[in-house]
Amino acid sequence: MEKQVDPDERARTNAWLIYDNPTAALEKGLSTEEIQTAASYLNDHHVILNEDLFGNISGVQVVIIVQVHSRLRYLRGLIESLRATVGIEKALLVFSHDIVAEPLNDLVRSIRFCRVIQIFYPFSVTFFDDVRSNTDLGNYTHLKSDVYPQMKNHWWWKMNYVFDGVVKRYGLEDRHVLRLEEDNYVAPDVLHVLNQLIEQKQS
Questions:
Q1: Contacts of 58 by beta carbon, 8 Å cutoff, 6+ apart
Q2: Cβ-contact 188, 88 below 8 angstroms
Q3: CATH numbers and ranges of domains, the chain
């Protein structure tokens, strides 16, 4: 008699495989539904990186959301500019991905200058069978017909998820949120200027 696999256990196994080794997960031949379920599981059970260095997430003073696509070079530049930002150790960086790929994950998980959370857009075009079977992730930027609508959908999903699944979940409702894209670059005083603007608005 074939052993029945608990759906929750399958989702958990697939989720951490995607988190730790996206290439192996894709090579495993997971269905679109399995990948979407795994992505949702990862979002619900996201890891808060660097709490051991900077303390509990309740100490965060600003939430910075970064929408990530596939441009590793640009993302590296943004992260380096954030590294040089005064007060960044008091921030929570939330990276929202619409593809899963080791180089992106490795870069984000190498951050040691503040708390970090990764979330994954569960309706990415790369999760659908016909796209995955005909697409080299290294050339993903050439997919044009589906990518641009996805960016907008990802934006809406990301904002809703962060405010409900992060800000509300951890009691950060009184913190301000700064939204960035992977190809942005910030000045070292960006958080100081943000605080000045907030103070002027409140005065």
A1: 170, 171, 172
A2: no
A3: 1-45 (no CATH), 46-123+144-202 (3.90.550.10)
- Confirm whether residue 196 is marked as ligand binding: no
Q: Is 159 annotated as a binding residue?
A: no
* 153 annotated as ligand-binding: yes
DSSP class of 126 = G
Task: Find out whether 70 is annotated in a ligand binding site.
Answer: yes
pTM equals 0.86
* Predicted confidence pLDDT, tens digits, the chain (203 residues): 444 456 678 888 888 888 888 878 777 888 888 888 999 999 999 999 999 999 999 999 999 999 998 899 999 999 999 999 999 999 999 999 988 889 999 999 999 999 999 999 988 877 665 444 444 445 545 445 566 677 888 999 999 999 999 999 999 999 999 999 999 999 999 999 999 998 888 77
Is position 61 annotated in a ligand binding site? no
Return contacts of 142-149, CB within 8 angstroms, 24+ apart: 147/69
Q: Which residues of 127-142 are buried (b: 16+ CB within 10 A; e: fewer)?
A: bbeeebeebebeebee
Residue with tokens 């958990």: 12
